[in-house]
Specification:
It is a single chain. The protein is mainly α. Helix content is about 75%, strand content about 0%. It has 2 domains: about 150 residues; about 210 residues, MetI-like (MetI-like fold). α2 runs antiparallel to α3, α12 runs antiparallel to α14 and α13 packs antiparallel against α14.
């Protein structure tokens, strides 16, 4: 067998050829591939491309981009069939053979693109970013053809296209919910919880007996369930965002405390002895040696808390809130069976949480560029 032979593209070719032998939809009037010219054209482009690369393995970014472009044409054909070609709700074995062929070609293209290494830093960064983006789009495609192709009821799982339409049509409601939950409860609670956790960690480090008295208490409080604390916070601070911010403070305080206390012990004994030889006091050693060494631990807590804060605020809104907020919208729309709106809120929360985490990760790289783990990643 030739070393240029590619098994993934060969599998995609075989599956695409087999798909031609079956109708893509069942029912009284089965729809054949040749009965849908656009779908047949897309399958032909995909088939010719994977057939070529089956015997001439794709190498480099250019070949893999061409392969993925052919996959995109095939995905467009599949979407056209389930939405406008009559295959929605009663797809057959032939249609899923084609989807499996798309999967094999996608796997080969993304694997090849992920292995590309470029001396141009900008180009390499673009390649590294494109792989997860394309993989995410592929998962969205699978969810779309799965829900529409199998005719999944909207109340169980709406199609991504339906969720996207709800997102586009409810921007004013989503913006108000985002402002109430994220810009108020999450950010304010996050800042207070992480800030106080950091300051108490420095105090614990300065007063050693607090490590034995405060840290076990902190572990106990951090194990308290949100569903138990949220109603209490609502009774203490009212129904508006301050009660949700209080829940966020509780959830973010102790991860920051524990990580910072651990990080303050990360400096090596040799470095500490060097500071003592220079007659450095406690605060000089803290600011010039121990806090810089603790930064990876501090940012680890900041990244963990970036997702915990959003989860805590949304869950807290289930127990009392004004008529606005992500948690409020999810709980009320589920009762109305408006599942597409629920998923729109979930998608918005996921995007906000991921963006928040990404900001913390980029900030970490800015301040801890000297750390050996970061140099190894580069």
């Amino acid at each position: 067998m030739s070393s240029r032979f590619d098994p993934w593209c060969a599998v995609a070719t075989v599956l695409a050829i087999l798909a031609l032998a079956f109708p893509v939809a069942g029912g009284e009037a089965p729809l054949l591939w040749w009965g849908a010219p656009a779908a047949a054209g897309g399958l032909a482009i995909f088939l010719l491309t994977v057939l070529h690369f089956a015997w001439r393995r794709p190498t480099g970014a250019g070949h893999n981009i061409i392969l993925l472009a052919a996959v995109a044409v095939g995905c467009a054909s599949a979407l056209g069939l389930v939405h406008g070609g009559g295959a929605g709700g009663h797809t057959t074995f032939g249609f899923w053979l084609f989807v499996f062929g798309l999967w094999a070609a996608t796997w080969r293209g993304l694997d090849g693109l992920a292995g590309v290494r470029s001396f141009d830093a900008g180009r390499q960064r673009l390649i590294d970013l494109s792989v997860p983006v394309l993989f995410g789009l592929w998962l969205v495609f699978l969810l779309e053809v799965g829900t529409v192709g199998f005719g999944v009821p909207q109340v169980l799982l709406p199609a991504p296209s339906m969720i996207g339409a709800r997102l586009a049509g409810s921007l004013d409601i989503l913006a108000a919910d985002f402002q109430q939950t994220f810009l108020k409860a999450v950010l304010i609670g996050y800042a207070i919880g992480c800030g106080t956790g950091f300051m108490v960690a420095v105090l614990v480090d300065r007063v050693p007996f607090l490590q034995r008295g405060l840290l076990p208490l902190g572990n106990l409080v951090s194990a308290l369930p949100i569903v138990g604390m949220a109603p209490i916070m609502v009774m203490w601070f009212g129904f508006d965002w301050p009660s949700k911010a209080a829940v966020v403070v509780i959830m973010t305080f102790f991860p920051m405390l524990v990580n910072t206390v651990t990080g303050l012990t990360a400096a090596g004994a040799m470095e500490r002895e060097l500071m003592r030889s220079y007659a450095a006091g406690y605060w000089q050693t803290l600011f010039k040696l121990r806090l810089p060494a603790a930064l990876p631990f501090v940012f680890n807590a900041l990244k963990i808390n970036s997702t915990l804060a959003l989860i805590g605020a949304i869950v807290a809104e289930f127990f009392g809130t004004p008529i606005v907020g992500m948690g409020f919208r999810i709980s009320t729309e589920v009762g109305r069976m408006n599942v597409d709106m629920v998923w729109a809120e979930i998608v918005m929360a996921a995007i906000a949480g991921s963006a928040f985490y990404g900001v913390m990760a980029l900030t970490e790289r800015t301040f801890t560029f000297w750390h050996p783990s970061y140099r190894e990643r580069r």
